[in-house]
Amino acid sequence: MKIGIVGATGYGGAELLRILQAHPEFSITSLYTSSQQGKNIDEHYAHLTGLFPQKLEEINPKKMAEETDLIFLATPSGISSKLAPELVEQGCSVIDLSGDFRIKNQMKYEQWYKKKAADRFWLEEAIYSLPELNREKVKGAKFISNPGCYPTATLLGLAPLVKKGLLTENSIIIDAKSGVSGAGQSASLATIYSELNENLKVYKVNQHQHIPEIEQMLESLGYVAPITFQTHLIPMTRGIMATIYGNIDTNITKEEIWDIYQQSYSDEPFIRLRKLGNFPTTKEVAGSNYCDIGLDFDERTSRVTIVSVIDNLMKGAASQAVQNANIMFGFDETLGLQFSPVYP
Amino acid sequence: MKIGIVGATGYGGAELLRILQAHPEFSITSLYTSSQQGKNIDEHYAHLTGLFPQKLEEINPKKMAEETDLIFLATPSGISSKLAPELVEQGCSVIDLSGDFRIKNQMKYEQWYKKKAADRFWLEEAIYSLPELNREKVKGAKFISNPGCYPTATLLGLAPLVKKGLLTENSIIIDAKSGVSGAGQSASLATIYSELNENLKVYKVNQHQHIPEIEQMLESLGYVAPITFQTHLIPMTRGIMATIYGNIDTNITKEEIWDIYQQSYSDEPFIRLRKLGNFPTTKEVAGSNYCDIGLDFDERTSRVTIVSVIDNLMKGAASQAVQNANIMFGFDETLGLQFSPVYP
Amino acid sequence: MKIGIVGATGYGGAELLRILQAHPEFSITSLYTSSQQGKNIDEHYAHLTGLFPQKLEEINPKKMAEETDLIFLATPSGISSKLAPELVEQGCSVIDLSGDFRIKNQMKYEQWYKKKAADRFWLEEAIYSLPELNREKVKGAKFISNPGCYPTATLLGLAPLVKKGLLTENSIIIDAKSGVSGAGQSASLATIYSELNENLKVYKVNQHQHIPEIEQMLESLGYVAPITFQTHLIPMTRGIMATIYGNIDTNITKEEIWDIYQQSYSDEPFIRLRKLGNFPTTKEVAGSNYCDIGLDFDERTSRVTIVSVIDNLMKGAASQAVQNANIMFGFDETLGLQFSPVYP
Amino acid sequence: MKIGIVGATGYGGAELLRILQAHPEFSITSLYTSSQQGKNIDEHYAHLTGLFPQKLEEINPKKMAEETDLIFLATPSGISSKLAPELVEQGCSVIDLSGDFRIKNQMKYEQWYKKKAADRFWLEEAIYSLPELNREKVKGAKFISNPGCYPTATLLGLAPLVKKGLLTENSIIIDAKSGVSGAGQSASLATIYSELNENLKVYKVNQHQHIPEIEQMLESLGYVAPITFQTHLIPMTRGIMATIYGNIDTNITKEEIWDIYQQSYSDEPFIRLRKLGNFPTTKEVAGSNYCDIGLDFDERTSRVTIVSVIDNLMKGAASQAVQNANIMFGFDETLGLQFSPVYP
User: What is the CATH code for C150-310?
Assistant: First the structure.
């Protein structure tokens, strides 16, 4: 299958290249860019020296649809809202890694993203797919909206309890922590090394655009209440940890909670539930498509603490997009994704 | 005044040396050690090359009390429970930086520290002093128990709201994050560079020994309920951030909450309340005695988020101990502590 | 082919597991350990959770030779000097990643390693193979000594000029820099996070045990003189950079020097020569088997500067060992090693 | 004495503020800026919250000279070439931390800096002062050119041997390594966290503008030959290490070389010569005005290796400027600079 990538010069794009280069069924045909046409990708990313012969091409939906079977859009929000529908109309399958088609409510998108929402028709066409929660709609789909990094870690951590209806209303708090690559490869005073190294920051307090995405999915799973979601910038490049808090009013033990997770996830190839007393660290999933989860329940406070970690550029972006692509086209979901994390 | 330090080879001890070397009233007379007698401190800490002529001496309470006016105990928990009383009995003033005299309830100490508690008499003699909350008992005292690093950041962040009785029962969650120096200068597989760099860990989930210390002080301020307190290891050397969550049921605005903090702290020389919309980062207090605080209130969830940062080795240990020493001996509380943070 | 690994709990061993898990011809049969028998590898390395069902087994050369076709010895120096010959005698092929069989002169080994040298017979049996320099002896061999990390980066950087005899006698200086994982997964005060983070150290000045290994190979290429080789510990986990200096007395331009490298390496699948004016960084080869090289010649001083980077755990250890294994058994040298670096 | 600072929003400026705030004789009167007039410095540097009441003022040489006794110019190169003479002409003393007045040969300045050189008259007026090498000219001077960070570490490491004429012609190689703060507080793709973390780069190979500054001073000390000087970016914020190599043709021992350094530096308050076998690390001088030096001589190669470390923002910029200011005005050279390094 012939694959095109828009936004290969971003960090998510770079990971798509790494994954797809070794994928047995997908073959990278073309790389598209809005600003660096005619260059080779290794002029931008020296680590790719010698690996991709093709030149970066300009964005032309008609030509793109002719050249490829599937396009990954690894672009900033605000771009695919127009580009994705054009590609789909031309008959090309699309997986959009941006936020543009995740929030189905236009008003909410515009309130949190401060950008114009995509067209309502296309918002409904775009299937939001976090495979472990709703893979059934993906097979045969033409247009996928890939989840955000924070929502992936958070929703996989919350889903088993939420589906059982065990969490008290208005009790969910997510203290989320991300490596700096989540900010992308863009220069600003706020992301230079000397400002972030040996430093720890909270940001977008009560204003992160992933809040409505998480709430939308929680609602579909049966939890209808606003969440508290705060994000922190950790002095590391990769990795997300969501430390999730919620109250449980019914009488329950940590072993029973663990069993609920075990039942939910025992068949999932990319979720690794840790034993009670064992919690995952971000580096233990680095470079991989795994989401590792650990949990504890404190009887003193009737509060559960769930720790969910992913690699923000992988399960939080590129490898999850490939997982969705595998499902779309009927391949084994794990195809080309069964590599071990890179440690240390 | 003649000062002795036990445990100068630890990180807290090293910071005491840095502060006291420049203090106008305190003069370091002697350094004591249980294991490196006869050495010079610069054989252990090359950054101190040439700065301290005295040799490390063995621990001998009688001799220590004769040589010094005040001893700082920068030792691991389990040591000062015996040593501190001996020194006080010999007439020496003591500031204990360990956890041994913080928890006044012996059972709770033994439950959380898994060590034998100090004698009940001495637990009552030792004044727990977080100056901004209870400095009045310190002046003229002979024996001070210096607060833990996490409790300092947490309690300074919570106190104004707790004193007003505004936080809903059982709603306090503290997601705490610390640099690695909090683990001290001790070698273990868990703290080597390759395991912690580019990694993020949660640890001691629902089991951190600072939980009873925080609850004890909250109770004295009027909040009687267990807290949820989870700790994370951040890939940086210094700094603590406590991200604190709590529910407020009464009708209130973020501006009103900010005013409560402003009233509490406007006269405090070492607390810097940030304006609404501005949150402190850990490096902004590095190397200093400051605790910087920012906050927001989310009307969607009726939940306040308070962000409190300190340097764990300074306001969380050494410089707070010197602040207590200043008060003990009637000096200006800021004496020798008015240095700016080191940035970047 | 059935593969066994001794020392899978080290960092080099962990990378062998990652590579071999995805290798199309090699299959990991058994993991051996001197200290953790009966455990699963994921009890030591949580990032491998669920990936390797086999238990760690004790070291028993006879049994190991029966169970496997090839054993990788990823052990500290001093262990394989005995174990490797026993395995080879039992008919098992061996690739030794330790330093025990690299130095062919016993006296030099003992002088630099401060350990007893291996038996002279076996020192001659063990083929030191840095494939780009001497792959011709490897095909069909039974016992390979895999090069050290620093020697790999250094020798690949020096070889083209040395072979041409262009470097002035006694002019080679290598200023080498390594990430901390080179020190292995062992706890000591010198390798804890707080000591190495935000710090830069020189170590083993004029005493590094890789000096005789480099000199031995240089001699075989025609350069007979001692080198200056200093090593620095960089606050990062992975990566080696060798910054190499040498004088050239003949009249030459940088373009001519570059051509010499281009001729030497244009057919090498794992060496990427950068264009003049472009120099590689360590992260640009992280997680891969590449050695990237850049160079410049300064006419003011008649001195060449060559910059050679590798991932110390990969081309400096595990992936180079697999490259050697591919050659040994007649597979394509790049089999299972064609993955892109992991960036950022 | 009334002090003004131009460029307080840079990292060197921030360190000047930290030092001068605590200096017993210098008092910061005014902060000047070309771009942020009317703001308070804590709007740019939150770590300075509450510490400096004065507003940032525009640059007006006449007014500046009236308001202050001494101006520190912590500006990028190309600005003080005009501003410094205007201030001196108005009667104000000036210490310039930029490169504009260091290179006395206009052609060389323009060749290496790619900028227009300062006026010849003022180049001669500006006294280049690295106090340990030429403090005698500074007392009573009105206009000081403060050395660069790399030249400070390099020249202090080389001076004792160079003065003795012991180094072979054309044998000096300096492999220099710097933390990222040397690049200043400016945003570019090359200095964002995700590009530099866990990475190691060489830069400006054979082109660094500090080369002519080092050669100019070496020439004045008697060494007339070009040097090789390569710079590396280390993933840390602060610190410079110069690893210096040179040949010695005369018969000498390492003990004799060490004695030469000891004689040169035994009275220097800010140079700490390490014992043979002991080498300094960058963090051991962080936040201080110290330059720590260690050395070894290898008889195999007749080559000396000298390791010299400083804090690039301190002895490499701000604290050395204050040291020069102390000398200019006849104060004790160590006034306000006797603080210990910040460790860990």
Answer: 3.30.360.10
